[in-house]
Amino acid sequence: MKPTEAPTSILREMTIDADAATVFAFFTDPERLIRWMGTAAELNPEPGGILLVDVQNDFVARGKFKEVVPVSHLAFTFGWEGSKNVPPGASLIEIDLSPKNGGTFLRFRHSGLPSEAVPGHAEGWDHYLARLALAARGIDPGPDPRRSP
């Protein structure tokens, strides 16, 4: 990256105290996904299948699954309904899971974002990935403080 270029992607790496199959299910099973992010979800985790998540107060993420390798890798397009900045399908999320010390090493990359959208998305993913780490361990992360009642 040149010094004048702003970042257009987010990379997060973390270890979650749960096996890879459990963590994978929290990205591919709508009932599990909404335990850590969103109020409703429609997921068809196969190439070309839909990803639709009502994240908060009708702020709806939409995309399509590109790659699905059970318990180890997911790739899907991502964007926001009604957004000109990051419309549905405008960016790409890639998730890699591998066993590590009885848990799962998660590598999360969100690329293709306009530079001005990176800070807000980075903050959002930090919030939601922390909630995922709790939910995958069987801990209720509680009500999402980012969502208005």
Would you kindly provide a written description of the structure presented here, covering whatever features stand out?
The structure is a single chain. This protein has 149 residues and is an alpha+beta fold. It has one domain (10-136): Alpha-D-Glucose-1,6-Bisphosphate, Chain A, domain 4, CATH 3.30.530. The chain has three helices and seven strands, in the order E-H-H-E-E-E-E-E-E-H. It has helices at 20-28, 30-36, 118-136, and strands spanning 10-16, 40-43, 50-56, 59-69, 73-80, 91-100, 103-111. The protein has a seven-stranded antiparallel β-sheet, covered by helices on one side. Helix 1 crosses helix 2 and helix 2 crosses helix 3 (118-136). The protein starts with 9 loop residues before the first strand and ends in a 13-residue tail after the last helix.
Write the layout of secondary structure elements.
Elements: E1 10-16, H1 20-28, H2 30-36, E2 40-43, E3 50-56, E4 59-69, E5 73-80, E6 91-100, E7 103-111, H3 118-136
Helix pairs in contact: 1-2, 2-3
Key features?
Alpha-D-Glucose-1,6-Bisphosphate, Chain A, domain 4, single chain, alpha+beta, 149 residues
Distance between the termini: 41 Å
Helix amount, in percent?
A: 10-25%
Count of domain modules:
1
Count of individual beta strands: 7
Order of helices and strands: EHHEEEEEEH
The CATH superfamily turns out to be START domain
How much β-strand is present in the residues? 35-45%
Q: Give the biggest beta sheet.
A: 7 strands, antiparallel
- CATH class group: Alpha Beta
Give the averaged pLDDT, no decimals: 94
Structure classification: alpha+beta
* CATH topology (level 3) name: Alpha-D-Glucose-1,6-Bisphosphate, Chain A, domain 4
User: In what order do the strands lie side by side in the largest sheet?
Assistant: 1-7-6-5-4-3-2
CATH second-level architecture: 2-Layer Sandwich
Uncertain stretches: none
